Amino acid sequence: MAKGAKKGGRVRDKWRDKQWIVINAPSAFGGSPLNYVPITDADRAKGRVIENTMFDILKQDPTQHQTKVFVQVDRVNNGAATTIFKGHEYAKEFLRSLIRRGSSMINDVYNYTTLDGHTFRVAVIAFSQRRLNASKKHQIRIIARQVLTNKIGKLTVDQFIQEATMGKMGADLMEEAKKIASFRHIGIKKTKLISTPESRAVQEAKAIETTQSVEESSSELLQ
């Protein structure tokens, strides 16, 4: 038998073993169907991250293709999956289109927590009409953090998702930043879910369990 040849027998068709499920949007976007994807096992599908665009979700404006949205499978039941919002980001093509000669780009990244305890890493990006000095760039970063800290702490996670991805938060930032300088664009370039109340509870429980195990082991050694 030639090297690498397989023994006789039918080749198993892995695709026939897969189950197809409907991926629904997070509750912030109404929970409508987004994708139809194959999975091998419902339990293993939990945690899977799927990329879409805002246009895939809202189907309103073609410019929504410029924003990518990442959803994570939370539960699978009766051929349908509920999801949570994992984050979003500007498409690279859109970012490149915002860059101009003779202007300044300002970035700021910081963690914020919603009213109901969801922590997100939020990246703000701003493009000025003209070049700005270091002092004004610093002022813009301070303003961005003040606005977002005051706002996000009063929003539920669903409200935060809507305002961060649909432009409302960027518009609020623009309203304050234009008092310092003229800007072509200010927006939330990227968000990433860092933790939820549930995930922190699990981590705390594991930490307590580990501490108790160490204490029990120490007690046994001392006896």
Q: What is shown here, in short?
A:
The protein is of the alpha+beta class and 223 residues long. The chain has two domains: 15-90, no CATH class; 99-209, Tetrahydropterin Synthase, Chain A. It is built from seven helices and eight strands.
Your description of this structure?
With 223 residues, the protein is an alpha+beta fold. It folds into 2 domains: 76 residues, no CATH class; 111 residues, Band 7 domain (Tetrahydropterin Synthase, Chain A, 2-Layer Sandwich), CATH 3.30.479. 36% of the residues lie in helices and 32% in strands. Strands 1, 2, 3, 4, 5, 6, 7 and 8 form an 8-stranded mixed sheet that branches. Helix 4 packs across helix 6.
Estimate what percentage of residues fall within beta strands.
Answer: 25-35%
- Please report the first level of CATH classification, the CATH class of the largest domain: Alpha Beta
Would you count the extended β strands for me? 8
Large-scale geometry = globular
Radius of gyration from CA coordinates: 24 Å
Number of domains: 2
Distance from first to last alpha carbon: 65 Å
CATH architecture of the largest domain: 2-Layer Sandwich
> What's the mean pLDDT score?
88
Low-confidence stretches: none
Largest sheet: 8 strands, mixed
The CATH fourth-level homologous superfamily of the largest domain = Band 7 domain
The helix/strand series, from N terminus to C terminus, equals EEHEHEEHEEHHHEH
**Share of helical residues:** 25-40%
Structural class: alpha+beta
Tally of contiguous helical segments? 7
The CATH topology of the largest domain corresponds to Tetrahydropterin Synthase, Chain A
